Every structure is written in structure tokens, then in C-alpha cells.
Amino acid sequence: MTRQPLLDITPATPETATESVAVILENTKSKLGFIPNMYGYMGILPGVLEGYTSSYNSFRNDAGFTPPEQETVFLSVSAVNGCTYCTAAHSMIADKLSKVPAADLEALRNGTPLPDPRLNALATFTRSMVEKRGMPDKPEVDAFLAAGFTSQHVLGIVQAIACKTYSNFVNHLAATEVDAAFADYKVAE
Predict the structure, then answer these.
(1) In sequence order, which residues have a C-beta less than 8 Å from that of residue 110 and are 6 or more positions away?
(2) Of 45, 139, 153, 175, whose CA is between 20 and 30 Å from 3?
């Protein structure tokens, strides 16, 4: 069953968007070859798309996670939030670009323990941060740090949660259709 939009909104396009959003949309199209459907919906309010892209780029560049760890965080947040669009998109990135091992990717998508102990510690702590609204128990923080992560990584998870809040929530409201580029990784709704 296809979800219906909760909000009647028309996505922004480079032709209809504000100048700042049009620049983001055009740059994204130039880089990826297409504009992800969710960008159009987020672009209706410039601060949403700008906030998303800023937090996304900073997380990728500054949080200190490897590419497989980045996808573990993004997939964990999106799974807890029930965002099928972001789960599909980040599954494709995890598989094709970040090279997350297949067994770990499958576990992330199924919400089961990951075979890789470090990625499992990361997924477990990330899910706890989302589920407990940023108030994990001290033993959870200690276990995460004992797995070889740092305070910077904890703050990186906060940043990823903020980033995914933009995209996950907008996708819920708009019932964003999964782009063809991610279709092979679509999950049941």
C-alpha cells in the first residue's frame, strides 16, 4: 500500500525556487545527474533544504566517521524514524559507494544486530539516541566510548539526527516517492 501525503505540497524546482534553493538544486543535479525527490519538498522553505544540506555536508566531512560508519548512522536514524525513502537512498549509498559489508547492511535494514562489532556498537548507540531523544543512559555512553568512539562521534550522531530529522519528517509529510536511483533498495511501507 502506497502512503498518501499528509500535506498537499508541490515540490520546488530550479525554475520555481528561491535563488538559494535553485543553486542547491542545480548543484545537486550537476553532481548526481538528478535532483532527489525529497530536495524539491525540502526546498519549499529555504531554511529546511539549506539546514539539511549544511548538516549533511558537515557530518560527512567533519564528524570523524568512515563512510561505512556514516551510513550506519544515517540508516539507524532513518530506520527508527520509519523513513522508507531515506532507508532506500542510504542503502544504495551503503552498498554501492560506502561499501558497507552486505551482512551488516542487511542487519541495518532488518533492525537486527550487525556482525561487525564496531558497526553494531555504533548502530545500537545511534538507535538509543533517537529512541531516547538524546538522553541515553550513562552505561550506553560508556559502552559506545569503550567501543573506540569519542565525544566528537557522540556529537556527530547528534548532527546526523538533526540532518535526518529534516529529511525523514519532510518525507513523511510528503510521502516522497523513492527515486529510480534508489528503487532497488526500496523497503516495504
Answers:
(1) none
(2) 45
Q: What is the dihedral of CA 62, 156, 90, 15, to 10 degrees?
A: -60
The span from the CA of 34 to the CA of 180, in Å, is: 10
Q: Which three cell numbers stand for residue 13?
A: 524546482
Query: Is the pLDDT reported for residue 1 higher than 70?
Result: no
Amino acid, single-letter form, for residue 128: S
Query: Letter for the amino acid at 42?
Result: M
> Cα torsion for 115, 117, 122, 127, to the nearest 10°?
50
Q: pTM of the prediction?
A: 0.95
Ordered DSSP codes for 12-50:
P-TTTS-HHHHHHHHHHHHHHSS--HHHHHHTTSHHHHH
